[in-house]
């Protein structure tokens, strides 16, 4: 049967953040513990003899980027006090693949021409927690990951990512982006699988996202409705997170979430009064802290039989206006695979 839980409303916010793993930082390998660097290495940094294509300049109280020598492919500059990127620092780094600039003080107007835009082989640009108001321009077409978390982005020109057919992940959370500022931004990204636009100022889900997308995270915005047929254009989408928004029943078209590809749907902390119609293949449904007052089983299972039932394993309904006693008689048959159903 079901594992039924009772959770205090006061603890729901913290629990909502822990209901799935969500990483905000990129794993950065530490420099090997040896005191010898290659002779060409910048004196402020370390270039291990046994990893000669990497230069570690992280956590060294730097206020500038040192000249990068020839042959460096992986450059770690995170956790410093860098405020600008001066012309010439990357002139020798024609084969740079990874550039990590997280946790500095760089502003958009202090990125000089002939720097990042010259890195034609760049694959990963990790530029989170700086003071950017717009993305760096003319980025490498070889890029497969772009991380701009926790900046001050208010604009994202439509041509920023143009031609990036290898781009798989884009992280834009914790900025000040609006729906309008993202118009056309993701067009033509044939390989994109993860898009994170959470903690911005969106009123709608971003338009024009590619059909290749597997994960779309839009938590903590001002979204009040879902366009009719939005998910039908994303046939591979498995994870959709729209928690902490302003969704109401009138903004959720009938069947908009009833797509067979979805495995996880998070609609918690919204203003829904009914359980939306879902597909029987969905495995995790988060609806805690809405205004739901009726358990509508037909929106989960249109009918139940030995071969027709929901694949839901997790169903959270805590913080609503229903209890265990609200479940219809046929619930056990419909939700036979559920291992966790949580009411208040």
From TrEMBL:
PROSITE patterns: LRR (PS51450). Coiled coil: none annotated. Keywords: Extracellular matrix, Glycoprotein, Leucine-rich repeat, Proteoglycan, Repeat, Secreted, Signal, Sulfation. SUPFAM superfamilies: L domain-like. Its main location: secreted. Pfam families: LRR_8 (PF13855), LRRNT (PF01462). The keyword Cell wall biogenesis/degradation does not apply. InterPro entries: Leu-rich_rpt, Leu-rich_rpt_typical-subtyp, LRR_dom_sf, LRRNT, SLRP. Residues 1-18 form the signal peptide. Binds to laminin. Belongs to the small leucine-rich proteoglycan (SLRP) family. SLRP class II subfamily. This is Lumican. It comes from Danio rerio.
């Amino acid at each position: 049967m079901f594992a039924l839980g009772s959770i205090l409303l006061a603890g729901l916010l913290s629990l909502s953040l822990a209901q799935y793993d969500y990483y905000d930082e990129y794993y950065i390998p530490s420099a090997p513990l040896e005191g010898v660097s290659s002779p060409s290495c910048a004196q402020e940094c370390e270039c291990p003899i046994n990893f000669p294509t990497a230069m570690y300049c992280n956590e060294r109280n730097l206020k500038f980027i040192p000249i990068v020598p020839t042959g460096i492919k992986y450059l770690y500059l995170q956790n410093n006090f860098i405020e600008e990127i001066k012309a010439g620092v990357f002139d020798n780094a024609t084969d740079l693949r990874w550039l990590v600039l997280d946790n500095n003080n760089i502003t958009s107007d202090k990125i000089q021409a002939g720097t990042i835009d010259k890195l034609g082989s760049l694959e990963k640009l990790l530029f989170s927690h700086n003071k950017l108001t717009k993305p760096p321009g003319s980025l490498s077409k070889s890029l497969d990951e772009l991380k701009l978390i926790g900046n001050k982005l208010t604009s994202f020109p439509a041509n920023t990512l143009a031609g990036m057919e290898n781009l798989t992940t884009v992280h834009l959370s914790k900025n000040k982006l609006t729906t309008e500022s993202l118009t056309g931004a993701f067009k033509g990204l044939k390989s994109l699988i993860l898009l994170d636009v959470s903690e911005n100022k969106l009123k709608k889900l971003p338009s024009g996202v590619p059909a290749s997308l597997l994960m779309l995270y839009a938590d903590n915005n001002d979204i009040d409705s879902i366009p009719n047929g939005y998910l039908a254009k994303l046939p591979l989408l498995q994870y959709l997170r729209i928690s902490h928004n302003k969704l109401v029943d009138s903004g959720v078209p009938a069947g908009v979430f009833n797509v067979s590809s979805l495995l996880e749907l998070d609609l918690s902390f919204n203003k829904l009064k009914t359980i939306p119609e879902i597909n029987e293949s969905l495995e995790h449904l988060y609806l805690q802290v809405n205004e739901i007052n009726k358990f509508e089983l037909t929106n989960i299972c249109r009918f139940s039989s030995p071969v027709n039932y929901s694949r839901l394993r997790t169903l959270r309904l805590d913080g609503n206006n229903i209890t265990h006693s609200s479940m219809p008689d046929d619930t056990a048959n419909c939700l036979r695979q559920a291992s966790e159903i949580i009411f208040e």
